[in-house]
Amino acid sequence: MATQITDSNFKTTVLDSNQVAVIDFWAEWCGPCKALGPIIEEMSKEYQGKAVIGKVDVDSNPETAMKYGIRNIPTILFIKNGEVVDKQVGAVPKANLVAMLNKHMS
User: Fold this and answer.
1) Nearest to residue 97, comparing CAs of 17, 36, 18?
2) How far is Cα of residue 59 from the mean position of the Cα atoms in its chain?
3) Before 93, cis peptide (omega within 30)?
4) Domains of the chain
5) What is the pLDDT along the chain (106 residues), one digit of tens a residue?
6) Looking at the chain, which terminus has fewer C-beta neighbours within 10 angstroms, N or C?
7) Which of 33, 40, 53, 79 is catalytic?
8) Is residue 49 within 8 Å of residue 90, measured between CB atoms?
9) 33 assigned to active site
10) If DSSP codes are grouped into helix, strand and coil, which group holds residue 98?
C-alpha cells in the first residue's frame, strides 16, 4: 500500500529518505485522482524497498501542498535528495510515471 504522507511525517518520510520519492497529491473528491490511485498502489508494490511511493491528501495536509505550490490535482512530484527533480500534473498512464521514476533512480 502506498505510504500515507502527512504534513507531520513529510520531512522524515520523503525529504530525509535516501530513495527517490514519488508523491501523489490528491483529494477524495477528485475524479482523475481516483483514476490514478490504483496506479500509485501498483507502483508502491513494484518499487517496495527501492523507492518511496506515497500519497498526500491535500485537504488534510494543506501545509505540504502549499509549500510545493500544488494548484491542480492530481500532481505527482518526484523528489530525490530532498529536491523536486520532476513533476507530472494530471492523470497519465502508468508507463509515463514508471519512465519518470526510472530516470531518477540511477
Assistant:
1) 36
2) 15
3) no
4) 3-105 (3.40.30.10)
5) 899 999 999 999 999 999 999 999 999 999 999 999 999 999 999 999 999 999 999 999 999 999 999 999 999 999 999 999 999 999 999 999 999 999 999 7
6) C
7) 33
8) no
9) yes
10) helix
Catalytic residue chosen out of the listed positions 2, 5, 22, 30: 30
CA-based nearest residue to 91, from 29, 35, 53: 35
3-state secondary structure 51-64: CEEEEEECCCCHHH
Give the cell for residue 60: 488534510
Q: Are strands 75-80 and 21-26 parallel, antiparallel or unpaired?
A: antiparallel
pTM attached to this predicted model: 0.96
Record the cell numbers describing residue 92, joined without a space: 497519465
